[in-house]
Amino acid sequence: MLDPGRVNRANSLEQIGRGDFDVFHPTYYDPYFLESIGNRPFVVTVFDMIHEVFPEYFFTSDRTSVHKKRLCERAARVIAISNTTKEDLIRFLGIEEEKIDVIHLASSLGAHSLHPARTIPTPERYVLFTGNRRFYKNFKFFLRAITDVLKEDRKLVVICTGPTFSTDELDYFDALGVRDRLIHVQADDEQLGELYRKAEMLVFPSLYEGFGMPLLEAFSCCCPVVASDTAVFREIGGDAVVFFQPKDPTSISNAIRTLLEDRDLRGEMADRGYERNQRFSWQRTTEQTRLTYEKV
Fold it and tell me: Considering only CA atoms, which of 184, 200, 192, 233 is closest in space to residue 110?
């Protein structure tokens, strides 16, 4: 069976060898092209600094951080997807501030409309947790923090997308006594948009993100958001998010209770989010990327 990564690298090297380009923009931190590109400029995008912020969670054989630093040092320009990521690039890798362009991402999720035949059955009331649930996502801590909320409100459910629940997670749910209050849904983009629109709120308890795409996804679907009080979520979410301290269980449960109990506040936050989302567009992202290319 062919290795897609190897095929992609071979095709890219063939194109680079032809020399019919002005700027090269690799999609990750693999330095395979450095010996072939010669003096042609390249631009690299840095999406987050997870490997540098949490090195203890990665094998010592993981070369991602080393490759990232090497490419950022060699690149003509570096694109960071948030000011927070830019600051971390400077702090952890020593990249010159002058060569970094901050270009925010956007979300198209709110534009999807779901065909009635593909609607996902959902409980009457639920909070939504999207994406993977690994270490820095803070999922287990969040769930422990809201266990009392779930036990007080027998109609409230947590819906998770992303990977299916592992045996370890199911055992954890059992230990908390809330296994029957968690539902996993495998959703495509259209169905995910429907989950956002029907949710009481999105809960985003991550300890660190490079951007925080679920914020914009929720905003575009008029879904209220409660999230960790972190620099990048402040940058992207502004006043359209109810913030909590991600390592304080009382702060987490109080924020969720506040939104659950106040329908008017949920409506206000949904409106703020929808308005906030207008600041982010793929057209703006594209235009700013074009300007970065022109710089080199």
Answer: 192
Ramachandran quadrant class, 212 (left: phi over 0; alpha: psi -120 to 50; beta: rest): left
- Report which of 104, 110, 111, 109 is spatially closest to residue 280, judged by C-alpha positions: 104
pTM above 0.90, yes or no: yes
Q: Where are the beta strands (DSSP E) in the chain?
A: 43-46, 77-80, 100-102, 125-129, 156-160, 182-184, 201-204, 225-228, 242-244
Of 230, 293, 271, 289, give the one whose Cα is nearest residue 85: 230
- Where in the chain do CATH 3.40.50.2000 domains reside? 4-106+282-295, 109-277
Q: What is the DSSP letter of 92?
A: I
Which pLDDT score, from 0 to 100, does residue 85 have? 98
Lowest mean pLDDT among 4-18, 167-181, 229-243, 261-275: 4-18
| Average pLDDT of the residues in 179-195 | 94
d(CA 291, CA 30): 24
179 CB-near residues (< 8 Å, 6+ apart): 170, 173
Range 4-106+282-295 has CATH code 3.40.50.1360 = no
- Per-residue pLDDT of 128-144, as tens digits, reads 999 999 999 999 999 99
Name the burial class of residue 196, with classes exposed (0-12), middle (13-18) and buried (19+) by CB atoms within 10 angstroms of its CB. buried
Reported confidence tier of residue 255, pLDDT bands at 50, 70, 90 = very high
- Give the model's pLDDT for residue 119: 80
pLDDT at 205: 98
The CATH number of the structural domain formed by 109-277 is 3.40.50.2000
